[in-house]
Design goal:
The complex is a heterodimer of chains A (213) and B (266).
Chain A lengths: L2 H22 L6 H25 L7 H20 L3 H24 L9 H21 L8 H19 L1 H6 L2 H29 L9
Chain B lengths: L1 H97 L4 H29 L2 H21 L4 E7 L6 H20 L5 E8 L3 E8 L6 H6 L3 H12 L2 E7 L5 E8 L2
Parallel strand pairs in B: 1-2
Antiparallel strand pairs in B: 2-3, 3-5, 4-5
Helix pairs in contact in B: 1-2, 1-6, 3-4, 4-6
The chains are: A mainly alpha (213), B alpha+beta (266).
Chain lengths: 213, 266
Amino acid sequence: MSILEILSYIGTFILLINTIIYSISFSFKKEAYSFFCVYLLIMLIITLLTTYYNSQKVNNLFLSHYYFLSQFILLSLFYKYVFENKKNKLLINTTLILIIYFLVLQYAMDTTLFQIFNLTEVVVTSLPLIIYSIIFFYQNLNAKVKFIYINIGVFMYLLCSMLLFASGNLMIELDPLINKIVWIVNASLYIVFQILIFIEWRKNYYRKIPKSS
Amino acid sequence: MEKELLQEDSQIIVIILIAIMILLLMAVALVVFFFFSRKKIIATELEKANLAISYQKELLYSTIETQEEERKRIAQDLHDAISAKLNVVSLSTHVLIDGTLDKEEQAQTLQHILSVTTHTLESSRRLAHNLLPPILENFGLQATVEELCDEFMSSKKVFVSYDINYEDSLSKANELHIFRIIQELLNNAVRHGAAEQITLNIQEYDKKLQILFTDNGRGFDIRSIDKKKGIGLKNIESRVDILNGALSYSSELGKGTTFTINITKT
């Protein structure tokens, strides 16, 4: 097993744990939390599918589009409910609709984009989320609030992975031996992201699990 | 040829890796910056809250202190003006009951009792009046303030010239605050400032009430008063606060004092 595979498995394993522990206190009343739970679940499914297709030696690149789009939609909804400011909510709604509309239009016009890393898609689905996380940082300068660790994770991971995935098409053309280094970096960052999500749960939700006696 | 290509490939990878490192560094810097700023901002806010709490505490202490002083004054007044006089009445009555006095002495004692009771009645009336002038309930602020000024003038030590233009536009509770403020100002001017001339001007505009108070007393040093305010001044400040008004004062040693209070009517 290569280092990349080990790191990927570790990342997926923490993701699995996070999905389970977050689902325990799932509630429809806590919208932001629920959307984050769904996000974790979808990410887990996509990661498992990627691994499965990879083991079957099938090209799994098309899954990246589901990954980016579902990440964008679910995290946008997550931030929409985290923000209390009506202007921010409106900004998120508008961005969400405009970008989905744009992507649908783009794929309708050029279906071959589905077979490669779509550079525009990577940028337009990651950049808004990074901006939301910065807004979140700014708005919570004077208070200790929930979701701060998730926000740090989203900010750091998306910022770096945006560049990684944006250069994805270039990587495929390069020697697979060398481009592995970049994917190792990505896998490591993903582990950090998942650990931050775990810390968030540990700090804010650990004690809220109803004890079954 | 293949080696060259490989070298080119690795260069691109290195560039991408460096770019990622820089991004990561910037992200970490921003997160660290966020945490430090938050720490600082929360500390400042805490300090502000503590300051507000200590101000409230100070206010509470001075309120209690004022209350105690007022109680002491009332106790003193009750003792001097009423208890002592009633003692005299009680003693005289005992003498009368004993029946050792002749008719003329009896008449004299009765006369004495009557005069003492009349005085005591007058004193108790004045005491009650000082605590809460009934005239404020019945005739409003303007009459009460005018009466207060006249009372001060009747001591012959001070001349109060007043011009009051007020038409019952505030609630009774707020009128009482204004009355107390003016009472405190007059007391301070006479007791601490030894003023001889006082001007009181109360004017009502559209949505504003302005109180202008000037005396020719000893005055005080504004800079030192800021650090250590007397209970009287603190009292005035809190009452102006309750009225949602603005208080400003100017004074110089030996040159009297001017107080301006602006109250916005709601």
